[in-house]
Amino acid sequence: MAAQMAAKQSRTEIEKLEVARQKDRARYEADRARLQAQLDQLSRKLEKQSAEQLGAEAELDLLSELRSAFPGDDIKPIRRGAKGAGIIHDVMEESKRLGRIVWESKNTSNWSNKFVSQARQYQTQYETPHIVIVSRAFPQKKKGLCIVERIPVVELRMAISLAAIIRDGIRDIGLMRASQVGRNQKAQELWDYISSEKFRTRFVDIADSVESLREQQQKERNWHEDAWHVEERLYDKIDARRREIEAQVKAIVRPMAKARIVSMRAGA
């Protein structure tokens, strides 16, 4: 009888451990979902990772990502062989064009200052200060995002984040109740800020922090998954040993119970 009570108590303790483990796992999943939602919200505004690295069709990759991120805008490539930039991005509000961003994609291994000279010409050609170079190659000791002669040079993985910031500024200016001169002045002020070192520093800090946060979340996820695997193995081991004890107890008790029944029948 004492052995049976001990086995029952053991089962109760194991069940309590399992309930506590499930609650802990549920709390972790809830916290992880909340943090992931916050990260996704920040990422949509500040960073959109490329699905693949720049390849032979880097310009098409950029075009596809821009169209996916801003479906209401008029975004079109310049015909191959035609003189001009790679992609013209007109920011639209319903059927009204509020402003323009010009994208020049460079899929080369080596940086050339000619890229910037060419980009500055596009400012006049397309009547917009908003010219951005998306490139694999960067000036020496530069990466991510840098400003060269007031022209942003950015990696593809950060391009959509930068596009969102520029686009929001263009849209806000375009919807202002101001004269064309006033809007042009604000557009220039916007570009002065975006092409400044202060903006570059803040933007890169955000992009790096988002990347670090993703890495930290992955480490936490891996740690919890490893812990759960260990707990499951321990639980299985505890359950197996409990079953062995119960089986042994039954093996001991049943012959005694059977003998008692036989004795009682004989006495009757």
3D structure, described in words:
The chain has 268 residues and is α/β, with parallel strands linked by helices. The protein has two domains: 2-42 and 218-267; 50-195, Trna Endonuclease, Chain: A, domain 1, CATH 3.40.1350. It has six helices and six strands; from the N terminus they run H-H-E-E-E-H-E-E-E-H-H-H. It has helices at 2-46, 58-69, 114-125, 156-174, 180-194, 197-267, and strands spanning 74-77, 87-93, 96-106, 131-135, 145-148, 151-154. The protein has a six-stranded mixed sheet, with helices on both faces. The longest helix has 71 residues, at 197-267. The protein is elongated, with a radius of gyration of 33 Å. The relative contact order is 0.11.
List the topology elements:
Blueprint: H1 2-46, H2 58-69, E1 74-77, E2 87-93, E3 96-106, H3 114-125, E4 131-135, E5 145-148, E6 151-154, H4 156-174, H5 180-194, H6 197-267
Parallel strand pairs: 3-4, 4-6
Antiparallel strand pairs: 1-2, 2-3, 5-6
